[in-house]
Structures are given as structure tokens and as C-alpha cells.
């Protein structure tokens, strides 16, 4: 009984803490979890042991809360993490129409649908189905990754070459954005090789290795764009209801569930890629479905990947959160699985309840202060956090990442190409020739 | 169909070749990459290369300072007339109207075959996200209307919306009996969507790599062409031996959600089953029917049932045909 109450308390505290974290643009939940893991090790050195019934629900609920509530800065402040990259444009559209609250709450409903899928569909079926899937696909992950890279690179739509007579000039105009996309992917990939093999960040901060790069690639270019464009945000309407029905929720759940689930199960496939694949595969024209499906996808990606570690008989570890927990705890049987499922359900419900007041708060902030100033403050917070967590080396990586992240902004190419930072080096490593490339680059 | 459907089909077809799976298990993903890439290649050739070199007889480029729907309608009607009189294919490109760095005047073109008219209606001024810009739409609702001087036939009963980036192309060709046939995107599914071209690329692949690669390339390319034949537009299946597009089977529209999702999902299940078949031994035992039943029939059936339940009593909406439906999302 005491353990159950302790777990419940840890869940609620973890969720509330995630509220604060999720509203700080640029700060990833894994950064905080990394620091917590270091803290637990430090306490253990002092002879103080933290029970698993406390840190498991605490950290799980932080992941759940963050995956739901981090939509707020992505949509309203335009400072996304990679998995929310596709929510920024529709989010800003809604904001510019005075419907920022409605747009954010739509992703909230999507997140709640994601929690429902995890607890009531994936939860009971996963121990029976996923070990079979894993047994069949285990030796094939590397080529699936290559196939997805191929699709990402081939599927970008040319943005230029829209007017004027036919010929090379028109072709060149169209291929400017495509070439910039390919360049972004490969230059990010080289950066990934460098960070994997010769990271300038000290080993004590090993959990934070990729954070400054991601912040530079994805969040800072948006903030800079917001500051430069100086957009005026119209007064926001706090709607009593949302323009959604059962059909929209169902279609969003299918699209987001597919993309997020795929990203959660396959290594290195991120939430952003899952969102892209789901959007394409389900061919949804309805913007409401798109926005809501991104909420579903993000929850399934972060929380679902974390949950996989606890599925009995599966033996799969996916996502930074799971790897950190694995260094502290080895899941055993259905007890841990049920604990995690209950945590996800409670944290999901609490997060959704928190979402409305938190969104109203951020909207008040945007209305009270100029959007340009809010973006500038968001940028300052991001830079400060990167400095505090990773020091000057991290700021340097962040600056390089920003340079690369601005290429898609300037050439109107797909920002997801920045994910070359993960995809290229890891796909090469999984296919067994990563070390040759690293050697070629003079990194080993 | 959408790009991802063709791509997934190309990978699924590749999984039927045992050597492709064996190579993949030995850390060589080449055959699967080729299968997916050549599954997508026909559209890649059209949308990323060929259309930029496709010459048009008339470029309708409305003046952004003084856009006029009547002028667009008149030029389209004149093109139909020119095709009827000249007996030649008249190719017309309708450009987008860029009003500013992030502002586009939206307009809709409709060929009304009942009243023999072409209608051009101005919509709102939208940003690149296709969202109306408040206060910018001074001409919204203005209509241009022009009489078509002969009978017009169209395989695509399209209302074409033109707003951001690229505009559509229409080809008007005389039917030899006084009427004119309208081809939507005449540069699309022409020579690139031919089974013979798939065979040609297969031979090239054989010369570069080996006959296995050639087989994968031909299979991936051909499955794209055959899938497209299920739609409205059809393809020129045996170019250069044939010159026009064979009519499609009209079973689906290229942007429809269910056929696209169904193709991707079915491809995933087929890949999964083929990988299972290639396993030397397994503690799990199932057959293709199990995979299809538990992987497709049950979940899709339950989803459709739930969708029917929440949609009962509502009328399904059909949207205008979008240029990107022929390719994929712009995300």
C-alpha cells in the first residue's frame, strides 16, 4: 500500500515537474533525466539508495508529461524539438488566425488518444505480438533504416521552377531547394559522425551529447525566424469547444498511431520521421487530422518507446529515456509492466488537465508581450540552458547546428533533412561500415 | 497514388526475391534501396525533371498587380478553340499568382461540360501554408466566365485549385469529330510511366550491377505503372510503341486515403511475411492468411466499423483535385 502511494505521489510530482520543463523551449526531458540519473548514482555513492518504485514512475511520468505538454512551446512559441517539427507551421497558422488555444488543445486531445492506444490497445497486445515481430525483424533493422533514408531523400517536393519558359533555368530554380535538402542531410551526417566519434563534450555529460546539436538544428532557426519576421500575433480566442468530431479523432489516432508506433519500434527512427511517414501513408487532407495526429504520434514515440523496455518477453530498449533507466534498473516480469502502464495512464490524464491552464498562460504571455520579445526570451533561455548543461563546447556545437539548421530555412527545403545527424552515422554503423567512413574522415 | 505507396510497393516486390533478403541479412541493403527508389522513379522523373523541360504553347501568367479572372477564363477558352481548329495538341500552363513573399492569390478553374463554359473563381489570398491572410483578399469571389466553342471531354472531372508554388498544365487535343479532349497534366504519366521504360532501366541496372538488380529495378518500376493504372488518368504503358495514355480503371483517385494507406500497410505485411519465410528456423509458426487476417482484416475492419459508427448519418465530402495528390505531401 505504501509503495503504491509512493508510486502515485512520484507520478504526480513527475508530471507536474514536466509542466515546467516542457514550457522551457529547447530543454529536452532526456537532459533532465540524464542529470537525475547522475544524481541517483551520486546518492548511491553516499549510501542512499533510491527505490525503483519512486524513480521509475517519477521518470516515466516526466516522459509522459513532457511528450504531451511540450507541444505548447512548439505550437505557440515556434520552438520545437525534432519530433514536433511538423506542428510548428500549422501551429503558427492557428496562432495567426487567433486560434492558438484551439490548435494546441487539438494536439492535447491527440495525446490523450495516444495514451488510450498505449494503455488499452498496445498494453494488452504487446506481450503477445511484439516478440513475434521482433523475432522476424531483428536482423533487418539496418536495411529498413536505409530504405527510410532513401525515401526521405527522394520524396521531397521541388519548391521552385514555378514560372517562366521551360528549360535549364527553370530546372535549376526547382533543384535549388532539393540540392539544399541533400546538402543539409549529408552535412548533418558528417556532423553526426564527428559527434559520435570525437565529441568535444566531456564524458561526464555523456547523456547530453546530442542535445546542443538538436537545439541548433531544430529550435534556434525557428526562434531566429520569429525574431526576424517580427510577426504580429492577433488576439487569441479561448474557445469553449473544438472543431473536431469522432471521425477526426479516429483518423488522427490511426495516422499518428501508425507513425509514432513505427518510430517507437524501429531504432533511430525519430518521432519527426514517424510523423512524416504517417502523414504521407494516410494521405490526410484535413488539417485538424494532421495536427491531432502529431499529438498522437509524439506520445506514442516517446512514451511507447520507453514502454517497450518493460514489455515482458520482448527485450527491446528504444529511446534515450529507456537507455538511461536501463543503467539503473532491469525490468522484471509483469509487475514492472503494470506499474509503467498505470503511471502512463495517470500521468497522461494529469497532463491533459494541466494543458488547458498552461496553454492559457502562454497565450497570456504572448498577448501581454510582443511576440518578437517572447521569441527572443525563448532563444535566450535555450542558449542559457545549453551553456549550463554542456558549457562552451555545447554552445559551439549548437552554433554549428544552427548554421546547418538555417540552410533549409533559407532554401525552403525540408527541415527533417537535418536528421542526417543521426540517420547517416547510425545506418552506416548498423551496416558495418561506419568505422570506415569515420576513418576516411580522419576521426579514428 | 502517393509516392509513399509506390515506394512501399517497390520494397514489397523486392522482398519476393530471396537473394535480396539474403543480401540484406549480409549487411547489403542495395536491392531493397533499388526496389524502393525505382518504385518511386516514374513520378520522380516527371515531377523533379521532365516537367521543367516540358514546353507549353501558352503560359497564362496573371499580373499580380492587376489579377483578372476573366482574362484567365478567356485564355483557357481560346486555347480550347485553337486546339479544335488546329487539330494539334495545345498545351497551356496556368501559373500561380504570387502577391508577395508569402502571399498567393488563390483561384479555382472549372470546366463545366454541361454548360460548355470555363469558370475561374478567385478565392482568398493565402500564405504558403494555404491559410487565408485576413484583410488581404480584395478580389475573393470574383468570377471569370468564358464560353467554350465546342464540346469538351475530360477524363478528370476536376475542379482545379491553383494557389501556392506551381500551377497545373492542361493539354487540349482535338478528337477529330469537332470536340476537344482535355488532358490534365499532359507531361505526367507520359513516357515515364511505361512498362517498356521499366524494362530499359532493368537492362541498365543489369549492366551496372547484375541481373538480380535488373530484376528488382524492373519489378519496382512496373508495379508503380500498374498501380497508377487503377486510377483515372492512366499511363502510356508501352511508349515509344504507343503515343497516348491508356485510360485508367477509375477504381480510385490518386489522393484517396484508404487506397494509399491500404497499399502501404499491405506492403508492410507482405514484407514481414517474406522476411519470416526467409528465416532458417523460428519458434513462431504462421502463414500468410494469419498475417493478413490479424494484420489487416481485424484492425482495418474494426477501424472502419468505428468510423462508420461515428460518421453515421453524415454525407461524405469530396475535395478538389490537388496537384500534389499526384506526388505526395509537401511536408
Structural topology:
The complex is a heterodimer of chains A (444) and B (331).
Chain A: H1 2-23, H2 29-45, H3 52-69, H4 71-77, H5 88-96, H6 100-137, H7 141-154, H8 168-198, H9 211-229, H10 246-265, H11 271-282, H12 287-308, H13 320-326, H14 333-368, H15 371-411, H16 420-430, H17 434-440
Helix pairs in contact in A: 1-3, 1-14, 2-13, 3-12, 3-14, 4-5, 4-6, 4-14, 5-6, 6-10, 6-12, 6-14, 7-16, 8-15, 8-16, 9-15, 10-11, 10-12, 11-12
Chain B: H1 3-14, H2 18-25, H3 30-53, E1 58-60, H4 69-86, E2 90-94, E3 97-100, E4 103-112, E5 117-126, E6 143-147, E7 152-154, E8 159-162, E9 169-174, E10 180-184, H5 195-208, H6 211-228, H7 257-277, H8 288-311
Parallel strand pairs in B: 1-2, 7-10
Antiparallel strand pairs in B: 2-9, 3-4, 4-5, 4-8, 5-6, 9-10
Helix pairs in contact in B: 1-3, 1-6, 1-7, 3-6, 5-6, 7-8
Amino acid at each position: 500500500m505504501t509503495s503504491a502511494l509512493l508510486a502515485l505521489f512520484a507520478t504526480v510530482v513527475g508530471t507536474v515537474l514536466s509542466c515546467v520543463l516542457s514550457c522551457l523551449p529547447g530543454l529536452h526531458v532526456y537532459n533532465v533525466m540524464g542529470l537525475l540519473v547522475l544524481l541517483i548514482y551520486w546518492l548511491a555513492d553516499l549510501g542512499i539508495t533510491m527505490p525503483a518504485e519512486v524513480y521509475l514512475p517519477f521518470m516515466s511520468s516526466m516522459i509522459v508529461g513532457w511528450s504531451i505538454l511540450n507541444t505548447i512551446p512548439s505550437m505557440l512559441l515556434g520552438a520545437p524539438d525534432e519530433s514536433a517539427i511538423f506542428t510548428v507551421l500549422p501551429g503558427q497558422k492557428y496562432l495567426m488566425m487567433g486560434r492558438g488555444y484551439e490548435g494546441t488543445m487539438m494536439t492535447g486531445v491527440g495525446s490523450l488518444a495516444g495514451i488510450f492506444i498505449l494503455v488499452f490497445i498496445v498494453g494488452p497486445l504487446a506481450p503477445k505480438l511484439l516478440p513475434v515481430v521482433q523475432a522476424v525483424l531483428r536482423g533487418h533493422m539496418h536495411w529498413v533504416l536505409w530504405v527510410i533514408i532513401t525515401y526521405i531523400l527522394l520524396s521531397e517536393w521541388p519548391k521552385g521552377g514555378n514560372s517562366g519558359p521551360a528549360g535549364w533555368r527553370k530546372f535549376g530554380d526547382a533543384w535549388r531547394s532539393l540540392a539544399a535538402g541533400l546538402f543539409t542531410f549529408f552535412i548533418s551526417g558528417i556532423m553526426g559522425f564527428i559527434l559520435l566519434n570525437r565529441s568535444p563534450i566531456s564524458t561526464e555529460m555523456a547523456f547530453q551529447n546530442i542535445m546542443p546539436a538538436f537545439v541548433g538544428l531544430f529550435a534556434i532557426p525557428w526562434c531566429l525566424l520569429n525574431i526576424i519576421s517580427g510577426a504580429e500575433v492577433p488576439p487569441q480566442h479561448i474557445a469553449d469547444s473544438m472543431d473536431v468530431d469522432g471521425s477526426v479523432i479516429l483518423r488522427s489516432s490511426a495516422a499518428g498511431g501508425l507513425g509514432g508506433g513505427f518510430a517507437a519500434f524501429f531504432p533511430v527512427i525519430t518521432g519527426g520521421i514517424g510523423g512524416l511517414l504517417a502523414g504521407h501513408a494516410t494521405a490526410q487532407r484535413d488539417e485538424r487530422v494532421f495536427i491531432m495526429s502529431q499529438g498522437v504520434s509524439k506520445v506514442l514515440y516517446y512514451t511507447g518507446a520507453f514502454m517497450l523496455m518493460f514489455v515482458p518477453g520482448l527485450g527491446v530498449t528504444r529511446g534515450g529515456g529507456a537507455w538511461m533507466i536501463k543503467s539503473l534498473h532491469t525490468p522484471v516480469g509483469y509487475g514492472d509492466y503494470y506499474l509503467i502502464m498505470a503511471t502512463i495512464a495517470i500521468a497522461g490524464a494529469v497532463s491533459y488537465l494541466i494543458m488547458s491552464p498552461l496553454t492559457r498562460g502562454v497565450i497570456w504571455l504572448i498577448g501581454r508581450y510582443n511576440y518578437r520579445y517572447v521569441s527572443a526570451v525563448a532563444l535566450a533561455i535555450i542558449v542559457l540552458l545549453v551553456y549550463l548543461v554542456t558549457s562552451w563546447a555545447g554552445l559551439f556545437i549548437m552554433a554549428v547546428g544552427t548554421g546547418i539548421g538555417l540552410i533549409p530555412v533559407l532554401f525552403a527545403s525540408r527541415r527533417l533533412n537535418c536528421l542526417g545527424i543521426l540517420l547517416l552515422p547510425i545506418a552506416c554503423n548498423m551496416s558495418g561500415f561506419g568505422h570506415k567512413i569515420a576513418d576516411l574522415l580522419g576521426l579514428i | 497514388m502517393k509516392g509513399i505507396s509506390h515506394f512501399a510497393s517497390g520494397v514489397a516486390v523486392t522482398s519476393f526475391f530471396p537473394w535480396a533478403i539474403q543480401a540484406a541479412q549480409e549487411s547489403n541493403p542495395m536491392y531493397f534501396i533499388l526496389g524502393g527508389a525505382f518504385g518511386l522513379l516514374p513520378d520522380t522523373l516527371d515531377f523533379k525533371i521532365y516537367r521543367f523541360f516540358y514546353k507549353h504553347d501558352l503560359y497564362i501568367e496573371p499580373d499580380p498587380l492587376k489579377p483578372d479572372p476573366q482574362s484567365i477564363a478567356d485564355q483557357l477558352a481560346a486555347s480550347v478553340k485553337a486546339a479544335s481548329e488546329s487539330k494539334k495538341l495545345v498545351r497551356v500552363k496556368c501559373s500561380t499568382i504570387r502577391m508577395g513573399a508569402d502571399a498567393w492569390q488563390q483561384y479555382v478553374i472549372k470546366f463545366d461540360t454541361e454548360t460548355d463554359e470555363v469558370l475561374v473563381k478567385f478565392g482568398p489570398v493565402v500564405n504558403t501554408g494555404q491559410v487565408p491572410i485576413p484583410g488581404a483578399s480584395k478580389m475573393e469571389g470574383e468570377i471569370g466566365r468564358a464560353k467554350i466553342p465546342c464540346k469538351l471531354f475530360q477524363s478528370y472531372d476536376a475542379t482545379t485549385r491553383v494557389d501556392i508554388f506551381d500551377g497545373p498544365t492542361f493539354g487540349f487535343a482535338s478528337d477529330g469529330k469537332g470536340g476537344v479532349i482535355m488532358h490534365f497534366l499532359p507531361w505526367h504519366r507520359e513516357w515515364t510511366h511505361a512498362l517498356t521504360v521499366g524494362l530499359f532501366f532493368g537492362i541498365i541496372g543489369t549492366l551496372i550491377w547484375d541481373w538480380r538488380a535488373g530484376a528488382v529495378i524492373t519489378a519496382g518500376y512496373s508495379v508503380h505503372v500498374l498501380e497508377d493504372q487503377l486510377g483515372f488518368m492512366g499511363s502510356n504503358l508501352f511508349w515509344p510503341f504507343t503515343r497516348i495514355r491508356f485510360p485508367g480503371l477509375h477504381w480510385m483517385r490518386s489522393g484517396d486515403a484508404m487506397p494509399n494507406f491500404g497499399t502501404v500497410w499491405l506492403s508492410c505485411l507482405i514484407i514481414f511475411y517474406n522476411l519470416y519465410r526467409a528465416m532458417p528456423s523460428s519458434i513462431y509458426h504462421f502463414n500468410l492468411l494469419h498475417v493478413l487476417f490479424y494484420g489487416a482484416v481485424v484492425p482495418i475492419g474494426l477501424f472502419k466499423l468505428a468510423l462508420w459508427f461515428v460518421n453515421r448519418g453524415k454525407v461524405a465530402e469530396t475535395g478538389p483535385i490537388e496537384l500534389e495528390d499526384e506526388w505526395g505531401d509537401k511536408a
